[in-house]
């Protein structure tokens, strides 16, 4: 394998010294880019982009070609590949988000769910990872990812996106044993899926717990964090002679940072509702931090974006252990030039915080 030409992302996740603060954006390959929209039209639809390794590679590279400041690539795929591989029948209704043909409602439904084999059932994702690694040729590290068991469970039980998670919450409180069985199967599936991605060439992995913040404090511990901890303890942590850092991102998890920091990950993703400097104090030396600019700041003009980047960098202060990112995914309405201004500001304004 080619040596990495830019490893500041991996170094910052392990709190090793860097020259400037590394940066990438959640959902960096997406609809705000005209070249992405063109590829999607060419492929036919979103799932065809995910399932064809050449297309997945093409759209993964698009933001890197446009923005030389990006310090990491993220596999182009979706968290819902796992439920799809469990037989739920994922499809996307234009403008409506993800949907499943089959919904998980009963203990019998859960008992019948298979644990997908990453190579047999999700081989297209493994192929996308190795194709992207080859194409990157050491330019920047490649991030693999998965949804957290809790976040995946919400989509499987609701049958798609939800505002209030009525069915999932009802199952959790009515039938906690059924919910635990579902989460346990998902944790096993996620562990082997992420290990498959690591063996195929992912150099760091992120667990997206998009809906963990919707739980009560007690339920978060029992139904989300416990399963992420289990996953992390089963992951391959070193490959090709380098550490493979794990990033745990619970959106809305700001109140629970101390316990998340103890769950075994190398870094925590933060949304924009917590102050980065305070978060650093709270987690101490245990983990690195990733985040946390409000993605809607990108609707403002480049000068205002730069000011906000400066404020966040100052809040973190001196030293390594911070990967700059948005606090959640970039939205389709963002002007690509504003994203460029954001990325440039991170590198230009952060040099002063590193030796
Ligand atoms: O970050 C990246 O560039 C990598 C690609 C990526 C996608 N989805 C591509 C995508 C990643 C990391 C995801 C993760 C994902 N998918 C999450 C967790 C992250 C988060 O945002 O909290 C979730 C909850 C999903 C499920 C999902 N996939 C939803 C709810 C939707 C519809 C969203 C929407 O805006 O319509 C998707 C579709 C999806 N996944 C798109 C992309 C680029 C848009 C599809 C399109 O082109 O129309």
From TrEMBL:
Entry keyword set:
Cytoplasm, Decarboxylase, Lyase, Porphyrin biosynthesis
**Entry's localization field:** Cytoplasm
Name the source's superkingdom. Answer: Bacteria
GO BP terms: protoporphyrinogen IX biosynthetic process from glutamate
Pathway(s) annotated for this protein in UniProt: Porphyrin-containing compound metabolism; protoporphyrin-IX biosynthesis; coproporphyrinogen-III from 5-aminolevulinate: step 4/4
For molecular function, the Gene Ontology terms on record are: uroporphyrinogen decarboxylase activity
Known EC number: 4.1.1.37
Name the record gives this protein: Uroporphyrinogen decarboxylase
Q: Cite the PROSITE patterns for this sequence.
A: UROD_1, UROD_2
Under the subunit heading, UniProt states:
Homodimer.
State the PANTHER family in the record.
METHYLTETRAHYDROFOLATE:HOMOCYSTEINE METHYLTRANSFERASE RELATED, UROPORPHYRINOGEN DECARBOXYLASE
Q: What positions does the domain Uroporphyrinogen decarboxylase (URO-D) occupy? A: 22-31, 143-159
- Name the protein family: Belongs to the uroporphyrinogen decarboxylase family.
**From which source organism is this entry?**
Pseudomonas antarctica
Residues of the site described as Transition state stabilizer: 78
- What's this protein's function? Catalyzes the decarboxylation of four acetate groups of uroporphyrinogen-III to yield coproporphyrinogen-III.
Catalysed reaction, written as an equation: uroporphyrinogen III + 4 H(+) = coproporphyrinogen III + 4 CO2
Q: Name one GO cellular component term.
A: cytosol
A Pfam family (short name) is: URO-D
